[in-house]
Amino acid sequence: MTSHKTYTAIYDHDADDNAWNVRIKGLTGCQTYGRSIRQAQSRIREALALWLDTDAAQLRVRDQFPAALASVADDVVRARSAAERAGAKAQQQTVEAVKSLTDLGLSRRDAAELLGLSHQRVHQLLEAS
Q1: CA distance 22 to 34
Q2: How many domains does the chain have?
Q3: Which one, 9, 13, 45, 57, has least CB within 10 Å?
Q4: How does 62-96 read in b/e, with b if 16+ C-beta sit within 10 Å?
Q5: Cα–Cα distance, 107 to 115 (Å, whole number)
């Protein structure tokens, strides 16, 4: 029987043992540990599958890390996402600038010089657009 419920795996770092203790919220006794987050994730999914007598691939598990750690990770995820959006915007502006400069009669080499690109990159951008 396939479960459609999402289970919450609650992680706690044990600094003394340098290990991650993990348990499933609401299932007293369904717990394990791992020396790394990845190992703990794998083991808790295996433990939950055994607990429920189902295939681990069919389970939906949401990881819940300590708030201080999750906050740091969330900040990085947001920053990386913003950087990706900025990179995509810069790429689009670069393509538009290359088109505008060459439409104004500049050579590909001069457009490249003005934009800080190689003339080969300017050629690639024009060919791709």
Answers
A1: 8
A2: 2
A3: 57
A4: eeebeeeeeeeeeeeeeeeeeeeeeeeeeeeebee
A5: 12
Domain coverage including residue 116:
79-128
Nearest to 69 by CA among 46, 37, 44: 37
Half-sphere exposure of 18 (CA within 13 A, CB side): 0
How confident is the model over 73-122, as pLDDT tens digits?
Answer: 999 999 999 999 999 999 999 999 999 999 999 999 999 999 999 999 99
Domain boundary among 43, 65, 87: 65
pTM (2 decimals)?
A: 0.65
